[in-house]
# Entry
Amino acid sequence: MTAANINATREFFEALSDEPDKIVKLIDELFSPELVTHGDALFPQPVAHGTEGLKQGLGGFKAAFPDVTATVQQIFGDGNKVMTRVQLSGTHEREWMGVPATHKKMTWTATQILRFNDAGKAVERWVIEDQLGMLQQLGRVSLGQ
# Structure
């Protein structure tokens, strides 16, 4: 089952680099409707419930970064959990995190842990993104002297 969960996780990130409707369709296949997400920058609150929020968040993200690519740098699983470290890059073409389009190419990393149920659906998701790096590239944060 661990290998199947790793493959599903890899498929999720490959779809993120594809057309927006592909990732939305894949969410229904890979994630349980009872999904709980912790710590994702796509959500305004620290814990989000359900797949609809994930679909909306990723839809807005794909609109802001239509050419986004997600490159899996590391992936491994143990039991019902899969950890992925991914590098994301894309051009900021629409408003994101309150910042109007800068048309800049951006690159950042994210780490995600998915917990799968016995039916092979992801039921819990933890995400840590380089939000500081994103905000710096968006021109919202300066760490200068």
Summary: The chain has one domain: 2-137.
